[in-house]
Prior knowledge:
With 131 residues, this protein is mainly alpha-helical.
Amino acid sequence: MNSKDTPFGSDNDSWIAGISLKWQLFDGFKRYHEKDRAVAARSAAAELLEARLREVRYRVRESVMRREEMGKRLEVVRNSLEDAEETVRLLTRRFENSLATMVELLDAQTALNQVRAGPGGVRGKLLSGRR
């Protein structure tokens, strides 16, 4: 093929055979840095997961405590309503027997109306989970 006189002749036949092997013995600590980077990323992901779990636990605990608080507030309002109704009943009896004035009875009725307006608000907040 490489003949000088005839095209495609057999002058100066040559063959080349070989094996190429590339082995990088030193890569500037690249493999070690990549391993360190992977370990750091894994550690960061684990810390992030733990932080999220702590946050969720905190929020659940806070919600439970708020629900308990609202339940106690509702109980206080119910007791206040019972007390205000009893006060109005007693002052009505006293007024009928001329032992209390109309102003005292009206004050008690106003207090009862204010307490009656409260439970709906507290109950609604309790059901909706708001504070």
